[in-house]
């Protein structure tokens, strides 16, 4: 009994934290009520999962996806346009958006992942801009800069999703985030995840072992693209209007996502939750500081990179290590902060 | 419909605009060649140069040529300060694995500069009509004096940069460092100094072009974004890190843009350029003018 307890002590503590977190995330918005808090938490969750997906590529394989907002855009417009022209339901739209983004990811990945890291960054950047320019110009189809109006989610299993009740959308994204995070976590914890880390730490050495590095990179990139697309589709039906601006689907959105991943702590996935809570929360609390918002984003990015590269997650880990060593346990796995 | 003089007009427009893109790209390529990072804040250096030029000429009343020199020198200092203050410490801490972080660090700098400009100067556009009003007429071809000025400025700067890199000791040291940093260091070149100076030169180029183009691109907080994208296009077409490639690719891009604007329906020229870049990235990632045979 004791040995069993000891064996499962560490996962148990982790499971406890996760359960508490989920319970908190599920309860807070409905306890507080109103429309404002659920909307804020929806945006925290959205940025969290996008940050985690960015981190899934950057923190595990050093793939810098500068065009992540473009994949979001592909998912959003992919779903919105197919709902409008092919009359599918927004629920199928989630899948269509994910697939649209995954296909773009597959093509981009096949063409550039074999090259040096800088090329995937530049290519994704231009994929994003090409998409955005094309959408702005194809006014007959996408309504361009005047904005595409998108309907909300239709009732599912008798549960209605009215936009006037943000709490319903909050629970929807909570479910989507849990599924996505579980998938990413499973991959990272599996043998594939080990290969990811091996490639990150020594790409040449890993390829010498006979591992097809590009194939693993491609798998990672396409999976991430798919999920980014799914959340793009969610975003489309949640927000109700799509405009192809740089703030929405361009470099500025990418910078927001990237900052959340960096501030949260790279190579951890869950760090982005802290990053999103901090950055989105701060921007809600400091509403008066509207124009300073992005300055704070930029400064946090500079500070994190130059002074504290392991981010919030690294700080929390150090704290946890100190706590457990003081309590005389110190038996759990301590992973180093991201290199 | 498109007569010879229209074509000549388009060509001159394209080349003069493109020469400027080429210089922006050359600065970016120089920095990439030496430091190995893409400077995402390059457009913001352009923006700062434009603001400096506006305030020097329109507020302080400094004559334009002197203002141009002031703004260029100022941006050189800004570039050196950026490299010494932020980039060098990061490189020192992370050793050879700093590249991805260095790249993201410049994004942080870009965001801060852009939004500080927005807070300090507001979204207003600070521009001027022309440094040299009037126009030249050659038969049916009409060229504004401003275009002549810009073309002359671009050609002069391109020549000066080429001479500097080819003929001076510092220029040789920079090229040597780009080719093989370790060997350059063994030969007694102070690499850290080269890093700082190269960043300064890149910044000074961006500042000078921002100043010269004040009549085309007025100073406003996000002007850098548009210009950065052009510089990226040029650097990719010319081959990453190739200064000469960028100088050649600039006019090429200018010509493509000028013709695309004239022939393609409004708005699509941006899509055409982006697609062209994607094609180069996929088919010839080493750039159009590169003879490099190794895998990029």
UniProtKB/TrEMBL annotation, chain A:
The chain crosses the membrane at residues 36-56, 63-85, 91-111, 118-135, 169-188, 218-240, 260-282, 294-316. InterPro entries: ABC_transp_permease (IPR001851), LivM-like (IPR043428). GO terms for molecular function: branched-chain amino acid transmembrane transporter activity. Keywords: Cell membrane, Membrane, Transmembrane, Transmembrane helix. It is found in: Cell membrane. It is a multi-pass membrane protein. The keyword Cell membrane applies. It comes from the Bacteria. One of its GO terms (cellular component) is plasma membrane. Pfam families: BPD_transp_2 (PF02653). This is Branched-chain amino acid transport system permease protein. It comes from Ancylobacter tetraedralis. The lineage of its organism: Bacteria, Pseudomonadati, Pseudomonadota, Alphaproteobacteria, Hyphomicrobiales.
Automatic annotation (TrEMBL), chain B:
Belongs to the binding-protein-dependent transport system permease family. LivHM subfamily. GO terms for cellular component: plasma membrane. It is found in: Cell membrane. GO terms for molecular function: transmembrane transporter activity. This is Branched-chain amino acid transport system permease protein. Keywords: Amino-acid transport, Cell membrane, Membrane, Transmembrane, Transmembrane helix, Transport. The chain crosses the membrane at residues 20-41, 53-82, 102-121, 148-165, 194-215, 227-247, 267-283. It comes from the Bacteria. It comes from Ancylobacter tetraedralis. InterPro entries: ABC_transp_permease (IPR001851), BCAA_transport_permease (IPR052157). It is a multi-pass membrane protein. One of its GO terms (biological process) is amino acid transport. The lineage of its organism: Bacteria, Pseudomonadati, Pseudomonadota, Alphaproteobacteria, Hyphomicrobiales.
């Amino acid at each position: 009994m004791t040995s069993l307890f000891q064996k499962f002590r560490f996962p148990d503590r982790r499971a406890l934290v996760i359960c508490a977190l989920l319970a908190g995330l599920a309860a807070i918005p409905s306890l507080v009520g109103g429309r404002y808090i659920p909307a804020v938490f929806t945006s925290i969750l959205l940025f969290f999962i996008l940050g985690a997906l960015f981190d899934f590529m950057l923190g595990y394989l050093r793939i810098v996806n500068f065009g992540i907002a473009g994949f979001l855009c592909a998912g959003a417009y992919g779903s919105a346009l197919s709902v409008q022209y092919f009359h599918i339901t927004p629920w199928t739209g989630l899948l269509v958006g994910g697939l649209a983004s995954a296909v773009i990811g597959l093509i981009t990945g096949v063409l550039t992942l074999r090259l040096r890291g800088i090329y995937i960054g530049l290519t994704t950047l231009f994929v994003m801009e090409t998409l955005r320019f094309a959408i702005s110009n194809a006014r007959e189809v996408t309504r361009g800069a005047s904005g595409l109006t998108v309907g909300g989610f239709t009732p599912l299993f008798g549960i209605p999703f009215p936009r006037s009740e943000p709490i319903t959308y909050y629970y929807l994204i909570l479910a989507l985030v849990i599924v996505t995070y579980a998938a990413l976590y499973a991959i990272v914890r599996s043998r594939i995840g080990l290969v990811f880390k091996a490639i990150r730490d020594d790409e040449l050495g890993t390829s010498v072992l006979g591992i097809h590095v590009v194939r693993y990179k491609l798998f990672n990139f396409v999976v991430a693209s798919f999920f980014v697309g799914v959340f793009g589709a969610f975003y489309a039906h949640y927000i109700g209007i799509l405009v192809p601006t740089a703030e929405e689907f361009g470099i500025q959105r990418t910078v927001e996502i990237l900052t959340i991943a960096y501030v949260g702590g790279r190579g951890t996935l869950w760090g982005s939750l802290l990053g999103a809570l901090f950055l989105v929360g701060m921007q809600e609390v400091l509403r008066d500081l509207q124009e300073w918002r992005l300055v704070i984003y930029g400064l946090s990015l500079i500070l994190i990179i130059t002074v504290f590269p392991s981010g919030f997650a690294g700080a929390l880990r150090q704290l946890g290590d100190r706590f457990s060593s003081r309590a005389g346990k110190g038996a759990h796995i301590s992973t180093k902060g991201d290199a | 419909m498109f007569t010879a003089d229209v074509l000549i007009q388009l060509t001159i427009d394209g080349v003069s605009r493109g020469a400027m893109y080429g210089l922006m790209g050359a600065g970016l390529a120089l920095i990439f060649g030496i430091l190995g990072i893409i400077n995402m804040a390059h457009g913001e250096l352009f923006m700062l140069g434009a603001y400096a030029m506006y305030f020097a000429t329109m507020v302080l009343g400094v004559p334009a040529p002197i203002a141009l020199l002031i703004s260029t020198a100022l941006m050189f200092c800004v570039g050196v300060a950026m490299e010494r203050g932020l980039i060098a410490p990061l490189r020192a801490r992370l050793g050879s694995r700093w590249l991805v972080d260095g790249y993201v660090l410049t994004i942080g700098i870009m965001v801060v500069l852009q939004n500080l400009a927005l807070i300090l100067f507001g979204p207003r556009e600070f521009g001027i009509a022309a440094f040299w009003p009037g126009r030249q007429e050659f038969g049916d071809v009409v060229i504004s004096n401003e275009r002549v000025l810009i073309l002359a400025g671009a050609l002069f700067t391109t020549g000066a940069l080429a001479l500097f890199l080819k003929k001076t000791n510092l220029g040789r040291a920079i090229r040597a460092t780009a080719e093989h940093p370790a060997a350059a260091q063994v030969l007694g070149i102070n690499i850290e100094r080269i890093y700082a100076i190269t960043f300064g030169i890149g910044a000074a180029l961006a500042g000078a072009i921002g100043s010269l183009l004040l009549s085309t691109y007025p100073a406003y907080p996000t002007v850098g974004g548009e210009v950065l994208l052009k510089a990226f296009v040029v650097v990719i077409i010319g081959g990453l890190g190739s200064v000469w490639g960028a100088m050649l690719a600039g006019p090429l891009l200018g010509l493509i843009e000028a013709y695309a604007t004239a022939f393609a329906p409004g708005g699509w020229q941006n899509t055409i350029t982006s697609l062209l870049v994607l094609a180069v990235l996929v088919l010839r990632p080493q750039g159009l003018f590169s003879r490099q045979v190794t895998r990029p």
